[in-house]
Amino acid sequence: MLCLALTASLAAPPEATDGEDPGAASSASETGEVDGEAGAEGRRSRRARGRQEARDEVDPEVREIEVSTGTRTSRDAATTPVATTVVSREDIVNSGAETLDEVLEQQGAGVQTSPGIGGVGATLRGFNPEQVLITIDGQRVTGRIGGAVDLSRLTVENIERIEIVQGAGSVLQGSDAVGGVINIITRKPDEGVQAEAHGAYGSRNTIDATGRVAGGMRRWQASLTGGLHRSEGWDASPEDEATTGDGFQAWNVGAGVHVQPLSALRIDLTGSYLRRNSEGVDVTNGGAILDRRNLTETTDATLATTWIDGDSQLQTTLHTNIFRDQFRQDQRGDDALDQYQPTWDQVLQVGAQYDQLVGKHVLTTGVDLQFEWLRTDRLEVELGGSGPDNDRAQRSRAALFVQDEWVPSTAPRITVLPALRLDFDSQFGVYPTGRLALLVAPLDELSFRVSYGRGYRAPSFRELYLAFANAGVGYRVQGNPSLRPEQAWTLNVGVSYLPTKNLTFTASVFDNQLRDLMTVDLVAEGGANQLQVFSYVNVGTATLRGVEGTADVRFAKYFGVEGSYQFLHARQHGSDQPLPNRPAHQTTFGFRFFHGRWGTRASVRGRIQGERAFSVTEDSAEFADPFATIDVRVSQRFLRYVTAFVGAENLLDAGDAVVNRIAPRSFYAGINVRY
To answer: Which pLDDT score, from 0 to 100, does residue 99 have?
Structure first.
């Protein structure tokens, strides 16, 4: 069998039924330790044990978990040369999170969520949401608003795990993976029958109800998931009509069929649909009150095949994603500022990847094709070829990539991973990227990782072609078809140390050099009865460098503590001013209790964020105040398959309406049923 599927065994964790916490290092970077169901091996082991434990409980015989984001081939997280943070299914369930942004905000100091115009985006080690690629099963998610994929629209009921790779990932993923990749791995059904339901109610009339049924035979399995979600908006400044956080109503459905007609061939067909309606209120500088609504619809479909023949593997993928956004703005008592802006964004991706074991090498070669179409009445730049035509724009990309994983030694373990990629963009032409990664593990419990690579982000349709006017404030923003791609050279050096099964330590140093950053700048002053005109421009260079560390300790059989810290030096070259919205200091901490026989869990998690610049000019900078948040959750299992839970978020009620837009203190309770 191809060695891609082989993983090195680690020491088994303590029995969950003895009461020790199985999740001590489940989301720690570079360790590979994870609770919950660890891939196919975990599922087979669980079936062999019958149903003595409720689903989503840890299998004590399984320690490793497979990851694929950093190399595009399945690897044990403990031995992959590309550092990968893993958030397991059990982590997600125990966190109480309902959406992807809620999961990510509970991770280490290097991962942040940042609310903005288009929703909640993800920031990795100072890289903006525009520079972080979001994928589902390796296929990119479309529908960016304001440059960010709204993570709050991605619900968690069908997520098996989340893999986070920090540093340039363009060598395998192409554009947008400048600062890293967040890859969502969806759940796969087992043989037999599985069913589960989840319901929760909380502050601001928040309702979350989801369900999943799955099962099948040895040669085929199928699954069906769905959910309803709603929450009222919130307002940190009730003295005016404007709201700070939008209310929303959403529902989603997904299905998957997995067939293995031959022992060497597997076929996966999946699809999903999401409809989300969010509403809020804005107030202009002139006092006009605007009721705002965004209705978004997302449709995904993927056909994937995998053929394994001895020491080779061939994977093919056909994926399409359609994102429809309808923005409506209604001015109270007038129609001068009324707007209706429909937008269609469609992506078609075709990929093939071939892996071959040759001695101590695993050679990976592949091709990616991507076609994107945008339709909106806000296109204003007329270009030939692949540019806009009236209300339409299109672009295409083709890429070839090659990677060699060489393991010259297994004791001590040494892995060398060079990779190259060549992209052709119909807008920019040829663009090469590369990366070299190295793993050295002199001991089973000690490993060092180094990686250096180049990433890039091509301008989006919005930055190239779209026009937006805000007459109430007195400005308009227009696209710039002459933009160049952003570039980054990223260096990561890390170490992980697991002296015992109860202790985990990691540390890393990173240095990122950015060039041709894209930002909005004033290009024309507004005269009498005229709007100021802004456009996107490439500006200068910048540096993002810092250190990051994590620690996880289990003690007294039932308890565990964890923490992380990041120092970030983010500066513009030339002016040496800080880059906005990048705090220099961040810390996370957690305390947990778990008793397997009682079925009781309790956790306290917190984050402390230092001051950060939020308004920066060439000569000065204004800073937002530091803040801290604390979340608490308690759950109790009953009758083997039923778990009740209660929790509170943002107990310190941090946040404001301007610079720290954090939802106020809230409480929730609910129940999970799994069979």
So the answer is: 87
